[in-house]
Amino acid sequence: MLNINTYKLNNYPLEEELKYYLLNCWKDNGIDFFVQQWLSEGVPFIFQDYPFLFESLRFKLAKGLSLNSKEITIVGSARLGYSLTPPPKFGTQFNSSSDLDFALVSSLLFKKCEIENNLWKIEYKSGKAIPNKNEKDYWDSNFIHNDVQINRGFIDSNKIPNRYTTIKSINNMRWYLEQYLSYNKPSLSFKKINFRIYSDWDCFLKQQKININDLKSKLSI
Question: What pTM was estimated for this model as a whole?
Fold first, then answer.
């Protein structure tokens, strides 16, 4: 086992370096420390040469959604430059087909989204909200799955229909950030922007730890 108090891990470790660390770090603290330092703090890999652009994104997003910029970070393949999804996707480099995944950690925003999710469920069940043909299957799935997420302390904003005040504001910011990045860093090509809202940092860290432990278990096979 590694002594993580003295082990040197780069800010943006290569896949093999990360794999070695995950398979050899101390069981009690290694995953927790990695999640805290590498997945929730610092400048994401894709902005390593443009840290002020990343801060500008956070500032504008925070202002648009009445958040503190400290409540905003980026996860997914943009964080280290490659996917942390278990094999065979582990190590897939961030590319034009990748999403830019924002994590918003705010109890107030989470509660607003939860309220709008519940309102949508009531309106859908009563027939007031009617999906089109393409939306029907997604709505039926999200009707159940959203509650599973909420019980775990997070919600994906794109799983609530764009019918309500908070969700509309989030979607407006999604469009704005895409335009802002297109203008300021056109070389950064990605598929779309996603927002996952967490009720607090404990829920964020817990979910990231679940994901990393899942990756670790698959790497050890």
Answer: 0.94
